[in-house]
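[job 4471] stage=fold_predict status=RUNNING
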Amino acid sequence: MHSRLVHPSIVFRALRAVVLTRQDLLAHGMSPRGIAAAMHRGDLIRARVGHYVLPGTHEGIVRATRVGGLAAAVTVTSAAGLWVPPGAGTHVWLAANASRLRDARRMRVRAHAPWGGRFQAHWGRLDGPLQPWTGCVPLEDALRQVVEREPRRFAVAILDSALAVGLVRPVDLARIRTRLSPDIRSVIDAADGSAGAGTESIVRQVLRDAGFDPEPQFEVPGVGFVDFRLGSRVLIEVDSQQWHGTAEQQARDYERDLELIARRYIVIRINYHQALYGHRELIAAVVAALATARGYEPAPHQLH
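[job 4471] inference complete, writing structure tokens
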């Protein structure tokens, strides 16, 4: 086959790559003219001089490549489809000898390091093998970076997400745990993969920290699974932005709530923002609901 006819997606697929160099493309059948034509058609994107990605590549990987490094921490876990905390930004791992860094948004402009705002640089040693064609640091390194950099509840939520989808196993987290400083190893211990979404993981942690023992994914026959049960009659449902945002989904939620209330359950339903930030209000509602379920009103000091 003539080199000018080789489509870049064929090369990327054959090499199982996300980022390839110009030399990679030339070595696997593309010509200089073919590369230029693919870029003109929009079939190939130059992320950095001599480095290319396909259209649709995760924006965080593109930005990390543009800077001159590899996607790291929450940028890697986001690209893997895991839960993304608010304001995650772009995390870039840079080799100790990294030079000629570029701005992540404009390829030809030098970067100012360290970046402020939404860009965070990682310079530490990696434990896994370096595989630049993936555009990312190894997943276990990314998860370690998440634990080291993110707030505890966000880090646990990401680990829960990774366990829930089978991207990592408990044995993998145990290995990551040995690479962490002792003061943050408890983050690994708090992850169990029982949460169906990041916000559920955060709510579970908030409830446990407050001394409650929530039962996740409790099944009500004829209704389905609810996110948490406390005691025998208090149920908590956590609405994520992804799964509860449409009118049809909300209508189904209301129908479920009516059925649960008809069965004498007390339903506490919270939204995405409340799950992330309304923890005091959530605990007050739980205390009151449990008190109601037991047949008495809570003392005033229990609500604060």
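[job 4471] summary: Residues 60-189 form one domain.
[job 4471] exit 0
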